[in-house]
Structure formats: structure tokens, C-alpha cells
Amino acid sequence: MDTATLIAICVLLGLGALLYTSVGHAGASAYIAIMALFGLAPETIKPAALVLNIMVASFTSWRFIRAGQFDLRRLVPFSIGALPFAFLGGSISLPGVAYRPLVGAVLLLAGLRLLWPRPMMRQEEIIMPPAPAALASGAGIGLLSGLTGTGGGIFLSPLMIMMGWAETRKASGIAAVFILLNSIAGLAGNLSSVGHLPAQLPYFMGSVAIGAVAGTALGVSVLPTHRLIQALGAVLLVAAAKLILT
Question: Is the CB of residue 140 less than 8 Å from the CB of residue 129?
């Protein structure tokens, strides 16, 4: 890889991390798209995205937890459902022809709903997610995240906001920890893939670390709630476009 290409990838990864971490996400879908755009080998993309996800989600989780934007009780049932299936999904190599349009369509619908000007929540009061619904949705998100090399937060936080299961900032904090756990489970499901990590990974890690510092500063306290929702909607639309068009 020549120097110009490496710089371009690092700049884009940093920008992706900034945008995604502002809404409590780690950015795996952006990392995957960027690395694919620059022609990295397919077998290196998934493990590299998971390693970047684990690093970024660790920092993002710490920032949101420290700011009090986290709720362990709401996280637990989703994680119980998700982790075994994230491990299973990580052990499966699935061709992109089938899942990319499907996942892209789901993200597109979720993104449009978040950008819709009407109130997001179905009821005015925040309620605890019913255990069966949390377990089932966690399992589905976990499997999908393991298959794709993402953390699943891009599905979880819009779901929690739309169902009235968490306030916006706490949904971002819950998603951050959920992403961290799922990414670890997904990578554990296919440890052999670590042998395919790119030699440029330390540069990638430095770039997303810088982006994560800036992004979490915006998401934890700077962005107003409605802007946070709009930012999340924009992230979903970008991810949907990348999945559908690439």
C-alpha cells in the first residue's frame, strides 16, 4: 500500500469514527465500506473492522458510562440474547450478495424514521423493554452483527428510541457497551481470522482513536438531543447507501 492510499484510508476512518461515536456507535459498517473501497482483501476486512470496533467501543463505553448515560438493567437482556448468536455469526463466512441489500434496506428505513420530524417515541414515558422482546431482538441483532463484522448498535439504539425503551443519550451509551460485547463475541467466534489482520492496522487504530475522542465529546454533552437523533439518522442512511451500492 502506497503512502497516499494509507493517508486517505486513515483520514476517512477517522471521520467515520467521529460521526459514529457521536451517537454511541463504533463505526464498523463505515470501516468495512472504506476498506472495501480501497481494495483490501476480503479476509482482512472483517477481523480488522472488529478490532477497530473493540478499541473504539471500549473508549466510547467509558465516556458514556462516566457521563451517567448508561443503564445496565436495560442492556442485560439484549446482551444475553445477542452474545451467543454474535459468536455463532462470527464463525460463519457469508457471501455479501444476499445480506447486503437486506441489511441496507433495514438501515434505510430506520434512518428515514429517525429523520422524520414527528416525535420518535410511541409513548411519552420511558418504559423497561419487555424481556421476551429484548431477548429476541438481541438474538437477531447479535447474529447479524457476527455475520457482518459489525457491533449491532446501529440497530439497537434506533430500536430502543422508537420503542420508548431508553432516552436518546442513554440509548447511545447502552449501544456502545452492547457493541463492545458483540464485537468481542464476533471476533472470538472466528479467532483464525486474526491471522489476516493488515500490516497497516496500527495506523488505522490511531486514526479511529482520534476520531473517537472528538465524536464522544460531541455525543456525551455537546449535541442537543434532537440533533443527536438526526445525526444517528444520517449515520444509518450513509451505512445503508454503502451496503446497497457497494
Answer: no
Distance CA 33, CA 243 (A): 8
Long-range pairs for 199-205: beta carbons < 8 A, 24 or more residues apart: 200/1, 200/6, 200/9, 201/48, 201/51, 203/6, 203/10, 204/9, 204/10, 204/13, 204/31, 204/48, 204/52, 205/51, 205/52, 205/55
Alpha-carbon distances of 38 from 5, 93, 100, rounded to whole Å = 8, 21, 18
Side chain identity at 64, as an amino acid letter? F
Q: Would you say 17 and 212 are in contact if contact means Cβ atoms under 8 Å apart?
A: yes
DSSP state of 91: T
pTM of the model: 0.77
Q: CA geometry: angle at 78 spanning 90 and 94, to 5°?
A: 20
Number of H helices, E strands in the chain: 10, 0
* Eight-state DSSP code of residue 129: P
Give every residue of the chain whose pLDDT is below 70, as ranges.
94-96, 98-100, 102-103, 106-107, 110, 113-114, 116-124, 192-195, 219-229, 231-232, 236, 243, 246
C-alpha 104/C-alpha 127 separation (Å) is 29
Q: Which amino acid appears at position 2 of this protein?
A: D
